Amino acid sequence: MDFQVNGTLIQQYYICKREVWLTSRNLSGDQDNENLQIGKIIAEFTYKRNNKEVDIGGSKIDLIKIENGELVVGEVKKSSRFLESAEKQLLFYLLQLKEMGVNARGELLIPEEKEKIAVVLDAGSEEEIRAAMTDIEHIVEGQLPPQAVKIKYCRNCAYSEFCWA
Ligand code: SF4
User: Is residue 37 in a domain?
Assistant: First the structure.
């Protein structure tokens, strides 16, 4: 399978590993390559240094500013639900950027709750995201999905009927 870990899978990984497996089976070979999209962000940002909204793998990323020579990427969330998974997804993007030679830090923005949470890719979080990426590859290689475990998220999950009908 032509498979690449993306931000959506990272986010799902921290909510439900079964969803990771199910989503991986729905990915087509010509899915938008996030690395290309991140490359495009950098290119666009070089030309236009102001707020810019970019869609990476279905996640809305607002490029905010350059501070002290560092790119700050902000992700807007409607609420603080599933904050941990949103943070890990942003860390994944920061890691992608780092691998392209771009140092960036992140901000999770929750306008409705007037919250701004700093997200910094340090050695510990980088190791964690790399481990998650490896684990996602193992999950996806499995012949069967992980067992369904009922969680709050199931109610709004696209696979709810499949898992619980
Ligand atoms: S319905 Fe629940 S168990 Fe099934 S994939 Fe979604 S979150 Fe996971």
Answer: yes
Q: For residue 1, is it within any domain?
A: no
Q: Quote the ligand 1 centre to 72 CA distance (angstroms).
A: 33
126: in domain:
yes
This prediction has a pTM of 0.80
C-alpha 124, offset from chain centre: 17
- Ligand 1, atom 3: closest residue by C-alpha: 148
- Phi first, then psi: what are they for 61, rounded to 5°? -115, 125
* Residue 2 falls inside a structural domain: no
Q: How far is the CA of 18 from the centre of ligand 1 (A)?
A: 6
Ligand 1: residue of 13, 15, 153 to mutate (most ligand atoms within 8 A of CB) is: 153
Which atom from ligand 1 is nearest to the alpha carbon of 153?
A: 7
Q: Which domain holds residue 123?
A: 7-164
- Phi-psi region for residue 114, left (φ > 0), alpha (ψ -120 to 50) or beta? left
Q: What is the pLDDT of residues 28-55, one digit of tens each?
A: 433 455 555 555 555 555 444 555 555 5
